[in-house]
Specification:
The protein is an alpha/beta fold and about 575 residues long. The chain has 3 domains: about 25-55; about 80-375, Purple Acid Phosphatase, chain A, domain 2 (4-Layer Sandwich); about 395-555, no CATH class. Helix content is about 30%, strand content about 10%. The protein has helices spanning about 25-30, 35-50, 55-65, 105-120, 145-160, 170, 175-185, 235-245, 255-265, 280-290, 370-380, 420-425, 430, 435-440, 455-460, 485-490, 490-495, 500-505, 520-530, 550-555; strands spanning about 80-85, 125, 160-165, 195, 210, 210-215, 220-230, 270-275, 295-300, 310-315, 315-320, 330-335, 345-350. It has a 6-stranded mixed beta sheet with strand order 6-7-8-9-11-10, with helices on one face. The radius of gyration is 30 Å and the shape is elongated. The relative contact order is 0.10.
Length: about 575
């Protein structure tokens, strides 16, 4: 964990402790009771003097954060308020769990916030938006996006967040679909959505507000949070949103923001937060503009991996980004300051949601987000979401007019001619996991029912959404798992005629990773890796990375073609 760069780490001072001496203690015998009591008073006075020195005060305050992992919040006294910031989740409600260690997810966010509260820290939480995904993995349609949005909103409410905003990812659902799913859900979350410059907010059944005042248990501070969609002349996020959902219109920020903040100021917030759907550069211009109202914190759009410190500090404003996919959250500690012109001081810590925030076994019922995840997969099953995925996409082989009739037949059909390769696949399944990939979904826990999640099945079955694949053939057992045709494509024509030049000739459709004319071995390896990382990406398989090739784990001999006997 990277350490907070803004924290002041004062030297540790040893704490002296004393205990009443036992009867007959040599010191009492030597100096007598009055002298001993005087010595105790003197020592106590000295200790009290040391205790009141600022450096030692910080040492004691560090003890309040002793239960945090590693250097997290080291040197921080207990804040008046801890503001937790998230955003740009992009549909990652949980890590997939196919490898370890993975980071992020709403379960871990809940547990992290609970660690703050268990240390007596009052918490207010806010999310920038872009909560759902725009499309499924491997180009799948966004069948599950609206449901993920609702589940995430429920999770934020249970975690105790105060408000969220929205961006282009919600607009791609489109936004009215997301809101409709929210309000019709039997357990509809009431978490406020803030976007002050969205026109015609009444279209969304009073679920979108301009701003909110948030008060947190244990803190006397009020947070004013306002959402805004950036409207820069050439590259404003409003233009991107309107491409996703043309029905959405926005007021220009430069003309309307002062009035909106003036209205919010009437509620007398102590801290002001802007959830800004715009770039860091535009946020800095906004914070430095002489005619614009000032915010203490601006949370805005950023890169996949966020910096450990605020992106920028403009005057008294911290401009913060927290990355993508829910891997990180930012925490701003709010402290009272002695300077009358600066009533509060802010400290910042970026927190990576690693495995230390997993729910311990036996404690699952204490985390309501885990129950939401079970509800999510059950809904996928109950609503038969798999039926909403198309099953007519063509594999590259099927796009060749000469091979358009090729269909998936399953790995067992390959065994007769490719015995050695088949045995590598079947007997070394414990190494690669390919042969039993479907079973891992059936056996999965926290949540269960993963075999009804199309976004998992696309990498755990053969030809999931393709012509003659898993869905098209009605989920047959012989297409479960990752098999020969996952890499080699539908093999029926090759099974019927192993020597067909359309499969084995120039096109080499059945062996796409054969060395091509004029190609180097390194180029061939890169092509193979590019095919693998469609599923073994850096989210699902954290042990992959640039230049990594795990071919040796599944290497099998070159095919030995046997001529058909008549």
């Amino acid at each position: 964990m990277e350490r907070d760069q803004d924290s002041q780490n004062n030297p540790n001072a040893e704490e002296a402790t004393s205990a009443p001496p036992a009867t007959g203690h040599p010191l009492l015998i030597k100096v007598g009771l009055p002298a001993f009591l005087l010595a105790v008073v003197v020592v106590t006075s000295l200790l009290m003097g040391c205790w009141l020195r600022p450096q030692d005060k910080t040492t004691k305050e560090e003890d309040s954060a002793a239960s945090f992992a590693g250097d997290l919040f080291k040197g921080w006294p207990k804040p008046e308020l801890a503001i937790v910031l998230s955003g740009q989740r992009h549909g990652y409600v949980l890590p997939c769990g196919c490898s370890r260690p993975q980071v992020g997810g709403l379960e871990r966010l809940y547990n992290f916030v609970q660690t703050l509260r268990s240390n007596g820290w009052p918490v207010a939480g806010f999310d920038l938006g872009d909560i759902p995904q725009q499309q499924g993995p491997q180009g799948l349609p966004n069948v599950q996006g609206a449901l993920k949005y609702v589940v995430s909103m429920k999770a934020y409410e249970r975690i105790g967040f105060g408000a969220v905003s929205f961006g282009e990812y919600e607009a791609a659902l489109p936004l009215n679909n997301a809101i409709d799913r929210l309000v019709t859900d039997p357990d509809s979350p009431l978490l406020p959505i803030v976007a002050y410059n969205l026109k015609s907010k009444d279209r969304f059944l009073d679920r979108i507000k301009s701003w909110e005042i948030i008060e947190s248990k244990g803190s006397a501070l009020k947070v004013g949070v306002l959402g805004a969609i950036g409207t820069a002349d050439k590259d404003g996020i409003d233009q991107i949103i309107k491409q996703k959902d043309p029905s959405l219109e926005f007021e220009r920020m430069i003309a309307t923001l002062p009035k909106a903040v003036e209205e919010m100021d009437a509620a007398k917030p102590n801290v002001k937060v802007l959830l800004y759907q715009g770039s860091v550069e535009h946020a800095a211009l906004l914070a430095g503009h002489k005619d614009m109202p000032k915010f203490d914190i601006i949370l805005c759009l950023g890169a996949d991996e966020p910096p450990s410190r605020p992106e920028k500090i403009v005057g008294k404003t911290q401009i913060i980004t927290v990355g993508h996919k829910g891997k990180y959250v930012g925490v701003v500690g709010v402290y009272k300051a002695e300077d009358a012109d600066k009533p509060f001081e802010l400290r910042y810590q970026l927190v990576k949601l690693g495995e230390e925030y997993l729910t311990p076994e036996g404690k699952e019922k204490e985390n309501p987000v885990l129950a939401l995840m079970e509800q999510y997969t059950k809904t996928l099953k109950d609503e038969n979401k798999l039926s909403q995925f198309p099953h007519n996409r063509k594999h590259a082989t099927q796009t060749d007019p000469k091979l358009k009739d090729a269909v998936y037949v399953g790995s067992a059909k390959c065994k007769g001619c490719h015995k050695e390769a088949y045995e590598v696949w079947e007997k070394h399944a414990e190494v690669s996991g390919h042969a039993h990939a479907y079973e891992t979904l059936v056996e999965a826990k926290r949540p269960s029912l993963r075999q009804f999640d199309g976004e998992c099945l696309v990498c755990h079955t053969i030809g999931f959404d393709q012509k003659s694949g898993w869905l098209d053939k009605g989920k047959p057992k012989f297409l479960a798992g990752v098999g020969c045709e996952s890499c080699h494509g539908p093999g029926s024509l090759h099974v019927d005629d192993p020597d067909d030049v359309n499969n084995l000739g120039i096109n080499d459709a059945i062996n796409p990773f054969k060395l091509r004319k004029g190609e180097t071995e390194a180029q061939r390896v890169n092509r193979r890796i590019a095919s693998c990382v469609k599923c073994h990406d850096d989210e699902n398989d954290v042990n992959w990375g640039p230049g990594v090739d795990k071919w040796e784990k599944i290497a099998h001999q070159d095919p030995k073609h046997k001529k058909k006997t008549k």
